[in-house]
Amino acid sequence: MKKRIMAVYDVDPFFADRFAEAANQKGTVPFTVMAFTSMERLKQFAQENPIEILLVDAGAEAAAREIKAGQLVLLSDGEIVPEAEGCPSVYKYQAADHIIREVMACYSAAPQQPAMALTGRPSQLIGVYSPVNRCLKTSFALTLGQILGKEGRVLYLNLEDCSGLRVIMGQQGPGDFSDVLYYYSQQGGLNWARLKSLVYTWDNLDYILPARYPEDLCQVSGEEMAGLLQSIAGEGIYEQIVVDLGQFGRKALPILLLCEGIYMPVRQDWISAAKLQEFEEYAAVSGHEELLGRIRKVKLPYHSSFGGQKNYLDQLLWGELGDYVRQLLKGGGRS
Question: Which of 8, 81, 125, 312 could disulfide-link 55, Cβ–Cβ 3.0 to 4.6 Å?
Fold first, then answer.
């Protein structure tokens, strides 16, 4: 599918070029981002090519309004820019993924959003679930998503009541999975632009912060959550979506049925084995015994050398767990 165009105009050639390179490199925005440092060239280009989003330096607003574009967004250098009708602004001196998230929030708020998909096919859902507690499930899911993200576009979603992900990522920004639930509850309210407005990035992995309040998840049935995940996958923004189900209980079953692959971290103690047996019996009596054939049980390497928040994410990737996941994806690894 041909991507639409996001044009960026700034008198600073380094800013425009760096932003376009960063936005195009990851490829999870269904636009071709083009940099311009000449207003005349931008106008000439716009005469022959439709521009969906136009980002321009706030000082060039008057000239930019002469250009036909689906959405005009001003780039502010820190001074307060009064928001004219249909013309929001974002702060330009921040990370490119932060700018993209804010621009997508502006774009998603515009009426009559076009339906676009990046890959033209639904994302593959990969489930990470275990009825066993304290089995390194979230550490495994994050490591899996990061390593898969080196080969393609990957999104990580955490459905735990209290995941700790805000602390782990050091991210307290606005927007989380509660907003996804809200948009989805509105008819036609969830689209790729709104999703991208909620996405944060850790190196190769995109993620949406988990729901801030556990009751937001408690009010959603397993079938409704499965429908939501199908909707996200159907946008085709990502090649794979890693779903960390947490302790979603028996509501997890409708979600697991959607997953093309399921990893289940397990432990070897007797109580953990009893919990696993109970899950397998439930899958069988509920008529979904075939699901068990898609589950790969993994016995993860335990370690005592992990430090605190500062180095934890790096240690996930380059420690024993990262090595284990790489071998697992190559077809090896203990199971």
Answer: 8
